[in-house]
Amino acid sequence: MSFNISLSGLNAAQKDLDVTGNNIANSSTIGFKQSRAEFADVFSTSVFSNTKTQVGNGVATAAVTQQFNQGSLQSTSNSLDLAIQGDGFFITAPSTSSLDKTYTRAGAFQVNDEGYVTTSQGDYLQVYQVDDSGSPKAVSIDSTTALKIPTVAGEPKKTDTITETLNLPANVTALDPNSFNPSQSSTYNASTSVVVYDSLGQSHTVTQYFVKDQTAANNTAGNPTNVWRVFNYMDSKPVDINGGLSYVNSSIPNAATLVFDSSGAIDNSQTHVSGYNTTLNIVTEPLGKTIATPATGSFNSAGILSNGVDAAQTLAFNFKDITQYASAFQVSSLSQNGSTVGQLTNVSIGADGVVAATYSNGSTSKLGMVALAKFSNPQGLTQVGDTSWKASLDSGLPTPGVPNSGTYGKVKSSSLESSNTDLSSELVHLISAQRNYQANSRALEVNSQLQDNILQIR
Q1: pTM for the whole structure
Q2: 3-state secondary structure of 238
Q3: Which residue among 11, 41, 84, 182 has its CA within the 20 to 30 Å range from the CA of 218?
Q4: Cα gap 396→264, rounded to integer Å
Q5: How far is CA 60 from each of CA 39, 44, 50, 63, 231, rounded to the nearest angstrom?
Q6: In Å, what is the CA distance from 231 to each residue of 241, 245, 346, 430?
Q7: Cα–Cα distance between 272 and 15 in angstroms, integer?
Q8: What tens digit of pLDDT does each residue of 255-288 get?
């Protein structure tokens, strides 16, 4: 019996050495979780045995348990390197359509030849689909999809609205709009420009010229004096405003009109005579066709858009919070809602797990939210290699969740979780396991010597 006891001790010591050696070997493996060998004594009894004098039957390996404590985080320069600061696991799948999920803490992801984000073994990182605000549409394991990063930002979008916030200087000298000439700065009071896009994504420059109308002060019937005319040009070609004020000078386009009250705010009272009523929704005539100027019969806006683009495209100017104060001309904001086809310039992942792609056309697209899962008993997970696990009966079913909520943890971009192996402790434990092995070997040797002595008795 003593041989079996010593042999069980040798087996247990060998198991302890194997586990410790595996921990040491993976001390530099990203996302690795160290294991611990746990042992139990073997004690056999029967109904009629005397437990007071019973000797144990050795030792057995009770379990090799994984330790899922947090590993330290190391910074990298790759935005697709991800680490979880919490209890969650990344979800991966062997193909884009597979329902067989694996779970990992190793976040060294990369992009394959099809644009999908994968592990180094080719498994696909799973994300939740999100809406425009970045909120997940559904949070479940089956609703996850493989994360794909497109290299271009979809189809071009033509501009139809330009939104502006600005101040027009009240203390400038009023000018005669009939003398306006965009090539002579002395004929207008201020100007600003914005780039817009046609239906094929081609860029065009729209320039607005603001002229404070001196002829308005000479009118009778209570007409206002704080009147501004706005002339619009696209790529240096005149653009008519639909229903705008026309001038005898046929070289300038129909103008938009802005009227201010004595407090410097826009005046929409609609009490002025024809030609002075103003609106904050100023719309151009279609940009791709020739427009006849009613006053003269001549033509403006000819050939601005061509080469097969949408000829019916118009631009609406939304003057938001426009003022006329006695201060310098200032444009606080100037934006438009069109875009061209953009090339991928950057991918960022926030602590909430939302993956955002930025493109050269200035647009940003939310591609998904990194899906996380956790288990009621992570030590029951089945190891499948490559620092990955699968759910088992012992671990329980995975519980899906979103990053930065509960104990799932934050997603740290440009970071990797190091192995949680404490190398110093493992080396000390290695010495202890070695001594244990040697002691059991010595016990086996002593047993052998005793057996030899008995056999040599005459």
Answers
A1: 0.68
A2: strand
A3: 182
A4: 68
A5: 6, 13, 22, 9, 91
A6: 8, 10, 38, 84
A7: 96
A8: 888 888 888 888 766 444 445 445 556 898 888 8
